[in-house]
Amino acid sequence: MEACANRCSSCNFNLNASKWAQVLVPGCLHGYHLSCALQASEPRRPGVEAPNGNADDSGPRSCATCAELLLSEVDGVRMLYKECSEELHRRDPTDLELFRTVEIKQGRETSPLRELPRSILCLQGLRCLDITGHPLVRVPPEIRLLTSLKRLCFVSTEITELPEELGELQNLQQFVVSCCPLRCLPESLCKLVRLWDFYFDGNQLRELPEQYPPLVNGLKVSGNLLRQIPEAVGGLQDIKCIRAYANKLEALPDSICQLTNVGEMSLQGNRLQHLPQQIGSLQNLQYLSLHDNLLRTLPESILELSELRWLYLYNNHLQDLPRGLTTRLQQLERLLVETNPLSEAAVADLIQSGGSLRVLGLDTEQASRVDPDSLPPWVSVGWMLPWYRLYAKLQPASQLKRRQGVEPVRGHLPATPENDVLVVAFAASQAEPEWLGVLSQVYSGDVSVAEAELQISMDDMGKFSGLFRALHERELQEDGSDEDLERLASTCWLSAPPHSSSRQNGEALQDFDVLTLCDTGAQWYTDVSEREQLEVERRLREIVPRYKRVILLGVSMGGFAALSNSHLAHSVLVFGPQTDLTLSHLRPGFSPEDLVRMSDNLRSRVQQALSQGVHFQYHVGAEDHLAYARRVPLPRSCFVVHPVEGRIARLLERAGILWPLLIRSIAREQRLARGASGRCGSGWNG
């Protein structure tokens, strides 16, 4: 076999890195189409012809150098063949995806990677490299050899730094390094002249480069340790979003007001004491989150944000607001101002809305400064618990969207709650309150419990039997049957027609209390070094014993928190939670040791909760989150697998399934509460 870099040494057709990915073997300089190299790396059964049509080894394997690179199961092409996603097995592949969670489709655990495989650095014409969930500790300088890359992702790895040689990837358009203990970015980042999209969320970055690629359309650096945003950001005219929440920012550069195309600015969970005076120049801004900062005043120019729809200001030090905030901003739909010492005049001005306002969040102290009869129904009032940097609002569900005749709550938190059931709703990593809309729909009173049950069926889904057999083969051998398998693989799916507008007779939900929790610091409701001490478990222990029954509710990061505190509840309802942070594609940028500790704590608390008889319902799609579910010590009967991929709670809400599920769970606890002998907590020693 002749050494030739122009023709494939397997099929003898031309090599062309602009069309196909190819392997160039160091030393012998033999070249292969990546598809040919993958075929040559397959384990060969006796009597099966070689890829070149010969039964002998006159092809790629006849060269010792080629054979070593192709057949190595440690860092060779065979390893890629075994461990990569199905993208690699398409015709003429150009993308490499190494996901730990690919085990769901392979039916076996993947091998963790700590070094970038040597075979990857031998590839030419590679367009995408995505390594997610592997304990990769470094990116070698040789990454510069992958000059054709357009997309590069390192997600949930153990990388702490990046080489300056990344600046040589002149074709790179998308660059993602998130959920890693990354401490700094290379200055050569500005040399990536084609880069338009990057994510550096959930790391340990303390500062950003002074210069940036000219085409970048967003600054996505939430969940780091940043103290400032460089002035140079103001020169990036294509920026449409700034996500810098959950950092330690003390001020914003004045140049940020030059970003007239920005539509989203998420700055919650920082230490901002003031805003640039010209912030009103951001004429396309629709979403502005400033909650959980140290703001004392707002610039008058904020009234010029004519497109603003969502404004979050809670947990600051604001005594007054620009007059006419809710009347001048005609597009404003949602405004939360709780836990600010607002004056009587400021509160009175807020409730004079003549625009599109649908939700105005006030706490009971603020609401007490005006006549309660003057509060419109779109004002949502509740008690704000003094839980430091956590948004912790406690209110009856009837206050989420007050119906005519329902008065707002007032005064101090009563010593004994009027309602028996508490729903603790943990927000996810977006660092903003969740669940309020769907919970207000749950308590709307328009649908009886019986009607909600009709919207759900647990139909057998035979097509999932193979998947479940692969995942639970050992358990099935012990005590499972085909019927049991199909029951476990069933999915909660809409089968009944939409309910009629006429009310059917049946039990309706009674009022229940909702405690909305939001971790704006993106700490996953956990205490670790260099972050704020939240003490979530201790604070929950102070409130949950007041109730007969407690439900913990969460999705994604919120689901992680619900499971981690499941020993404090009677029922836990989660949707697509991250559970094993050592391989999750979404996680905080903490140390590997902290991630292990947090994951172990979750499993321990779940086991403790099971021993206490806590009821679990774990909803998950047929995708990556199913791999996380396997690592939770729950009985199989606790899992409900849905035939969808994506954000499971959002998809279920769109399908009209989420609210019936919640109604059923809350109704169950209310029935049990009516038969309970006393308030919970007496037997909880945790």
UniProtKB/TrEMBL annotation:
<dbReference type="InterPro" id="IPR050216">
    <property type="entry name" value="LRR_domain-containing"/>
</dbReference>
<dbReference type="Pfam" id="PF13855">
    <property type="entry name" value="LRR_8"/>
</dbReference>
<dbReference type="InterPro" id="IPR001611">
    <property type="entry name" value="Leu-rich_rpt"/>
</dbReference>
<dbReference type="InterPro" id="IPR032675">
    <property type="entry name" value="LRR_dom_sf"/>
</dbReference>
<protein>
    <submittedName>
        <fullName>ERBIN protein</fullName>
    </submittedName>
</protein>
<dbReference type="InterPro" id="IPR003591">
    <property type="entry name" value="Leu-rich_rpt_typical-subtyp"/>
</dbReference>
<dbReference type="GO" id="GO:0005737">
    <property type="term" value="C:cytoplasm"/>
</dbReference>
<keyword id="KW-0677">Repeat</keyword>
<keyword id="KW-0433">Leucine-rich repeat</keyword>
